[in-house]
Amino acid sequence: MATYQINVNGERREVNVHPSTPLLWVLREDLKMTGTKFGCGISACGACTVHLGGVATRSCIVPISHVGDRAIVTIEGIGQDSVGRAVQDAWVEEDVVQCGYCQSGQIMAAVALLKHTPKPTEQNIEESMGGNLCRCGTYPRIRAAIKNAAAKGGA
Amino acid sequence: MASAELSRRGFLHVSFAAAGGLVVSLYLDPRSVVEAQEAPLPPQQPKVYPPAAFVNIRPDGKIVIQVNRLEFGQGVQTSLPMVLADELDADWTNVIAELALAADVYKDPMFGIQMVGGSGSIAHSFQQYRELGAKTRAMLVAAAADRWSTTPDQCRTEASVVHGPNGKSATYAELASDAARKPVPATVRLKNPTEFRLVGKKVKRLDSAAKCNGSLKFGLDLDLPGMKVAVVAHPPVFGGRVKRIVDDEARRIEGVRDVFEIPLAKGTGVAVVADKFWPAKQARNLLKIDWDVTGVEPADSSELWTKYRQLGQTVGNVAVSNGDASALDKIGAANRIAAEYEFPYLPHTPMEPLNTTVRFDGDRAEAWAGSQFQTGDQMAVAEVLGLKPEQVTFHTEMAGGGFGRRAVTDSHIQREAAVIAKRLRGTPVKLIWTREDDVQGGYYRPMHFHRVEVGVGPNGLPAAWRHVVVGQSLLIGTPFEAFAVKNGVDQTAVEGASDTHYNIPNLHVSVHHPKVNVPVLWWRSVGHTHTAFVMETLIDELASRAKIDPIAYRRQLLKPEAKKLLRPLDLLEKAIAGWRNRLPRGHALGISCHESFGTGVACAVDVSIENKRPRIHRATIAVDCGLAVNPLSVESQFQAGLSFGLSQLMAKGAITLKNGVVEQRNFDGYVPPYIVDAPVAVDVHIVPSTEAPTGCGEPPVPVISPAVVNALARLTGKRYRTLPLVNI
Predict the structure, then answer these.
(1) Nearest Cα to B42, choosing from B479, B436, B422, B609?
(2) Is the CB of A139 inside 8 Å of chain B's CB atoms?
(3) Which tens digit of pLDDT belongs to each residue from A37-59?
(4) CA of A69, closest CA in chain B: separation in Å?
(5) Measured between alpha carbons, how far is residue B182 from residues B17, B137, B185 in Å?
(6) ipTM beyond 0.90?
(7) Omega prior to B479 cis, within 30 of 0
(8) A58 & A107 share domain
(9) Which of A43, A136, A141, A146 has the most B C-beta neighbours within 10 Å, making it the best mutation to test the interface with B?
(10) Domain extent listing, chain B
(11) What's the fold here for domain B312-345+444-716?
């Protein structure tokens, strides 16, 4: 076990866990922030996507010992950001979700896309969202919501 | 029992007093009666649905509606409250939906158990929820009329307010406690469809915001004081047993509390209990287990194919024999087509890994699960713990997908959780199946082989059709067997073929059900996953052979009474008129239509080949689901459900076994559709209808795969009969 100071959604948090513990499980079990989801554990589905130092990252394969002082933003905190808020609003407006389990990760990936590329093409969307699995298959509405958020220019 | 459990949950305190003796007439739509052949129990007698168990009008004006089914994406947590709220004239902005506990009162009116399946939620509970809403409204109006010394017919309702004579008004919240003392009316007038305020309108989901900000809790997110987490090491071959465990290293992981052998549905396994998930998983990786697999059949896909192909050459148990069984033999070889199809095992892989939490307190227990079969899962937990079902408070947790995987007749997940919780008496234990457990853990859509011989008549239409299906039965050996297995034919293996709506004069369908040591389970749309593929690709091939337009050919061949397919085909033809003849070079049109669970669907796709894979530029859907209760939900189910159907075309979209061991482990070996694999755009057209509503959860799935390969066939000239689609 080791103690780590991490920065989550702008707050300093301290956790005492084994260094190999993935950030995902620190968020979910130590900090009780369960909006970030466990889907596969091998970075194949994107349900665990968070922003680490501003980059969309699969938290299921990042050991806590590798996080350092990089800012962590999760689905619980992304609404404080104007792009994040715009994407969440667009998701609701387009009635994207079905089971909803993957949508935290989808939203985090979409926010990262729009921060980098405010007016994405279909190809940009496919590239950025290409690793986020949705078993319900809400992909057509995910496309629509990203375009909706882009049109409103949350950035 | 129900009211005791409800009281514990604490939402009865200002609610209507439970009024027994209310008999709600059962709503039976003729199509649902057909589906009921698959029911586990005979349709129940009309039974009591006390409004108090379903509606709670709180002092703050919020109206809490209990949903008698699991929500796992299909939208019923919005649609059923819409139905009730409409008849109640409730203010929709103040409606809250909750997933009900397991209790008799929440059993499906048709199936007789509490469950989600067979696309039955709206089909079976539409009338039930209308009547509940209307009766609740009548009691509120009666209370208001008393208060104002007038009669109910002098009152009207709107947005949770009763308006009476002389400008009097009272909110539902103000009237709730008086209304609770009113008798529940035996009969009540329901709205004329023109009076609906919510039903038939596009209403957005109630659960969107909470699913977009991370606040919604799924079963896996449950956190209870003192809770422990368990994972289980399962045998490498189904049915294997633990011979020896070396667990010293595993026990040294900090946070690990216990390691012990447990019985499984088949064989035995090793449970690891820890304070949190990560130590439990680390410890499981360090276990050294010798497995005894003697006497256990090591299923092997390639050996099974050999066996299935041989079986498919012979006639099986007869599902249907119409006309002359020897008619085929009288048709010359030049006019006969023989086609063989192969469908692999398929996993469901819902996004939320399977899980269940149980706490055993000696004389009672509590369980939390995203369950499609609350009744059976509650009974299973009780049985393991030596309790009666009513001693187990069973919470329905929001589930991250399911697609059939949470409707398991042996309740194996709940049994594992209960066995572990029994040992840790007083401590809540959350059992988590990792993705590897899920992909390798069985309960797959069975593999199937089909052999079809068609004799073509002079008009280009099929004159004789001999069809043999080979595949494990889903239902033999389960409580459902008595209702859906007849003469050795499991209806869920032949549905969609033996009951085809095409008018084929000499139709003979038979089935073999080999026994294989691989647990199998229904996969969204069940038998239609394979039968629709066979029927719709062959019909398309016959249309091409006859040089007839694929829509016109289907229309010509369908029985005149197949309105639920004919109407969508007509609508589809209109909907695609703008694009079907303007496809870019390298693109092709693919058509299919199929009815399942009482809902008819026609599908058109615009497909090209990119990077050796089908690229679906557009899909157009026309659907007849009777009255569309929430057209937005119908549209969403189709737009998204097509992707689930496309799972079976993915290059790595199969489960295979070698010497009894599943060869795929996670989403690297089994790869479902991602955004590039899905249709870029889907437009959905709903046939206007006032007929009884039918379900839309499963009907999107069967149509898409045949439509896509029918388009590919036009591009390449090849026919695709082996899934997954590895090479184009």
Answers:
(1) B479
(2) yes
(3) 999 999 999 999 999 999 999 99
(4) 22
(5) 9, 11, 9
(6) yes
(7) no
(8) no
(9) A136
(10) 2-212, 219-295+354-432, 312-345+444-716
(11) Aldehyde Oxidoreductase; domain 4 (3.30.365)
